[in-house]
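Limitations

Structures in this collection are predictions, not experimental determinations, and the ligand pose is part of the prediction. Treat each record accordingly. The example that follows, with magnesium ion as the small molecule, is included so readers can see exactly what is and is not provided: the inputs are given verbatim, and the output is the predicted complex.
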Amino acid sequence: MEPGLTLKSISFSYGNYWSLDGISFGLNKGELVGMIGPNGSGKSTLLRIMDGLVRTDTGEVLLMNRPISSFRRHEVARQIAMVPQESIFRFNFSVLEVVLMGRFAHRGLFPFEEKKDLEIARESMRRTGTLDLERRSIHELSGGEKQRVLIARALTQKAQFILLDEPTSQLDIRHKVEIFELISSLVRGQGFGVMVVSHDISLAAQYCNRMLLLNKGRMYRIGSPDEVVTTDTIREVYQCPVLVDKNPITQTPRVTVLSRRPEHNKDIAVQPLRHKGTEE
Ligand code: ADP
Ligand code: MG
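Predicted complex:
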């Protein structure tokens, strides 16, 4: 069976400056896929392509076996919910108002505060632990609270696929774990297909079923966390000295960033980076 959201030989470029090329994979329902890669490797662009917001130059994005470009915007929004990297609200919306925005996909602009919409919004807030924030302004929230509210909005959209762009980037370790726990419980419990972009590589490796490593707009590797997160792949792509071993509890790959000073790493057999000019 075809995955619900499939990318076939995608290419896309921003003018002559930068391009994404040779991207093919599918996101299945019931799986959590982690997308990693350095700054500027194309993660946000790829998510926008998957959401049909950016048209590809070649190749196609299929949603339920149909080109995503053949869907109207609100039809896409019933299938795919996006939690963007930056969500800036120009008005002083309450948390409940922000969560209710997820109903636009089903109601259009107005009217949307019907009883059923409110019930769906509150159910999403209950699942994300944001009910008691309902009347607060979106501008007053901490980073972790805001992320949970944005996930509540995505749930309110009642889509099958959720795409999250760096939802843990501003959070402390406890709140990072809470976000991964939340999204993995949604995948296991409700069967959503979720793609999450993250720089928390070890944490993503703990929770994700598959991972995709992007490098300069190309798919460097896709597979299980063990296949994707290795000392060689992370060093090569991030151009940073690391050691990947196994988390002793979860047995998933664990990334330790090494100092560039040789005297700090003398007990570890560190292979030099393969590219010239990056080593001191
Ligand atoms: P990532 O999310 O992995 O950091 P992005 O997808 O945001 O990467 O960006 C990939 C590359 O495309 C970067 O070099 C970035 O500067 C460039 N880029 C992103 N958005 C635009 C845009 N709207 N116009 C031109 N270049 C862009
Ligand atoms: Mg990005």
